[in-house]
Predict the structure.
Amino acid sequence: MRRRVAAGALALALALKLGLDALPAAVVAGAFLRPAARLAACYLNAAYDPAALTISAHGVTLAVVRACAATDFCALVCALFACALPIRRRMLRLPAALAGAWLVAVGANAARLVGLVFADACAPASSVSAVHMAVGVAVFLPVFALLWYTLVVRKEVSRGQHAVD
């Protein structure tokens, strides 16, 4: 049973990722990039240019591009939510998973952008791409692990099942 759910979640994540990748750049910018950049700019009390999608703070100007959209993370979180949210009505499960995944992805991406501003202020220019990857992993992996623990592991442990089968 668990393997079927995992296979379904993987298929959903892949389909959602392909769908999100096919969206026009303006839709991705409006749905993912601008909200995350605006949240990060508010937190940093930074200059934010919505037309150019740049955040300027602490001597760093960060351009938020489509690769920064966190759509892959959104697809993974949506698949997790679709399989693990305790919603009995199937008609409501996918819309709730989509909405929740979008909120988590935008919030986590804003936290990543804040981290990138501080990391770019300290890192040498030659290591910018490695720093961006490391900050992304340092933000997205713990968020996903916390969601997994909350929705899957804790529920199984409270039922007396082993988390690893």
